[in-house]
Amino acid sequence: MPSPNIWHHTATYETENRAVDPDGRIEAAMAAVAPWAGRTVLDLGCGTGFHLPRFAATAARVVGVEPHPDLVALARRRTRRLGNVSVEQGTAQAVPLPDGSVDVLHARWAYFFGPGCEPGLAEVARVVRRGGTAFVIDNDASRSTFGRWFRRGFPHLPEPAVVERFWAQQGWTRVPLDAGWSFSSREDLEAVVRIELPTSVAEQVLAEHAGTSVDYAVNLWWRTF
């Protein structure tokens, strides 16, 4: 499934990555469940590799997997001086790693929207070794300002209750988090909203919302294998 936000607007998506979760609540919640220091980490759908150096600071080995060849090249360039990082081209449905080779798996706003992602979850179960933990970070469209925007922009996606029920039935645990967006300028906020929402919805919500920050709820889903 294409990701037009990062595929077509790479620089703006970088701005978004810097603005998300200014208090570090997502990584803190992950570390409370499964610390990655000294372990092997897979960032599935790593994009330009924004999170790879963060994991590499303490992990023994970090692998990024990304389907888009241009983003693979950018991720490799970002991490070229990090000896414990490699980046491979591949998809969530066909991860180019051996069975049981990963301790901690991270998939942030990849393609995991709930029902329909079973092939990817089968690969997660294959590559995560016994005792390892997988994390999926996704929008919580049931609440927050951005959650309301998301529902307006993508009414065809499953309802939040359907998504939550799917993950629970798959044996995953939900940690609801208030992550937030905090931008350094109004121009940056507007640019990011315009790549994340359909044009008409983006213009509507920007007309309604003032300032440079947005309250943004996310779900951290995790499962130990």
Supply the helix-strand structural class.
alpha/beta
Strand content: 15-25%
| Number of strand segments | 9
* Rg, Cα atoms, Å: 17 Å
Identify the strand order in the major beta sheet.
3-2-1-4-5-9-6
How are helices and strands ordered from N to C?
HHHEHEHEEHEHHEEHHEE
Give the helices and strands, then pairings.
Layout: H1 4-8, H2 10-19, H3 25-33, E1 40-44, H4 52-56, E2 61-66, H5 69-78, E3 85-89, E4 102-108, H6 118-127, E5 128-139, H7 145-153, H8 160-169, E6 173-178, E7 181-182, H9 186-196, H10 199-208, E8 213-214, E9 217-224
Parallel strand pairs: 1-2, 1-4, 2-3, 4-5
Antiparallel strand pairs: 5-9, 6-9, 7-8
Helix pairs in contact: 2-9, 9-10
Q: Can you tell me about this structure?
A:
The protein is α/β, with parallel strands linked by helices and about 220 residues long. It has ten helices and nine strands. The chain has helices at about 5-10, 10-20, 25-35, 50-55, 70-80, 120-125, 145-155, 160-170, 185-195, 200-210, and strands at about 40-45, 60-65, 85-90, 100-110, 130-140, 175-180, 180, 215, 215-225. The strands form two sheets. Strands 3-2-1-4-5-9-6 form a seven-stranded mixed β-sheet, sandwiched between helices. Strand 4, helix 6 (about 120-125) and strand 5 (about 130-140) form a beta-alpha-beta unit. Helix 2 crosses helix 9 (about 185-195). The two termini are about 25 Å apart. The model has no long low-confidence stretch (mean pLDDT about 95).
